[in-house]
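Reference record:
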Amino acid sequence: MSVSLRDEVRGAKLGDHRLTIRLGKVIESLGAKPNMSVPAATHGRAEMEAAYRFFDNDKVSPERILKPHIEATRERVSQAEVALLVQDTTDLDLTRPKQQVRGAGPLEYHTRLGAFFHPLVAFNEHGLPLGIAWQKCWTRSKIKKMTTNEKGRWVRKTPIEEKETYRWIEGLRAAREVADTCPQTICVCIADSEADVYELYCEPRTTSSGEVHLLVRACKKRITVDTEVTWLEAARATKCLYQCSVNVSGRTTKRPTNKRKRHESREARLAELEVRATTVTVRPPYRAGRNRKLSDVTLNLVLAEESNPPNGVAPIQWLLATTLPIEEVQQVRQIIAYYCIRWQIEIYFRTLKSGCRIEDRQLETLERILNCLAVYAIIAWKVMYLSRLGSECPELSCELIFEPSEWKSVWMTIRKANPPSTPPPLNEMIRMIASLGGYVIRQSTRPGTQTLWFGLQRVYDLSTAWQTFGPD
């Protein structure tokens, strides 16, 4: 590819110039066949062993691998009018049937081992992924079983810095650094309901050149200072600004033991939502210990709630706490549109796990897997980037992304005709590549990441044949 994965790691400082060169070769080989194993993606035994040695090298770390990509991400953010910095957590299940990965810790219970990955991924306001702006990985040493009362006391007494929830504050601080280096861009840090932590709202958001806005889906029952009701009740008490209809997709719960309403099975339906907005000042929760007294916080709320849900079905409800303005209806609509982009990070995790198969990599230690994860984190972003770029910039020449041997071989394979003298538009080429992975070309749809990552592997093989045997 003309815009290559090698560019995303160029200049990585690994303490040895040869390691930097090796990183470029490794990421290009694995990126060409993201769904394949390391032996299948590399060229021969020598390259395979070199890749495994690279992941095992003491000078290599996820931070060093990702640093040039993070810098490139900030450059792309600086060119955007709005940057949505989405943070979320996914677990990496590294449980093995026999020999376990050294260094892996328990996930939700001790028989399931792995690690946690928490990235801050940047998107523009249309959902085009701009790259990884920050990331954190960790493992648990043990899981302590506690009753509800014991857990409540532990939450109140334990400093936020000693909890896993501190990652949300670290993510906001990383977003603040991005906003500081990109003063011309409106930066919004977005998170799901797990980030509904009061200390997050108290965290400073201003920078030397501006500020970073906050947008979090609320889930806690926080009490307002003025009306002494919950902030959900305060939002419900305001007038409806507008109504809208949304298509609710059906789902089947993955774990029958999960009783949370947001994870229960449901049928697809068309839901009618009422949207309201208000400003509230909420009372801080109690925190034991000195110097842990929190102050009141004033936030804007946007409530999108289903007015008449079917009997026995939990209503669709989004209560969004934000620092973005809500004076006009269009601003409220924009806030909901921004939060909808948050779902793109779930697609990113799916691309990383199913497309790049990071959990299936046969590496014996956690350190090697985390180095491998850093490489595939960039590859997963690139797959998503190509998938969205085709629809965002449809008339862009495909030769700005793909080499002539790539797009010409695909054209002849799909169209059964000689390639045109002028490179076709990028959107047309992306659709053809995705069709190699199972996408059915329709004007009303666009290809997803799964068909694209399968198609890209076919592109690599077709391009190799083109270069080896020639167009004739």
In short: The chain has three domains: 5-56, 62-382, 393-469. The chain has a mean pLDDT of 90.
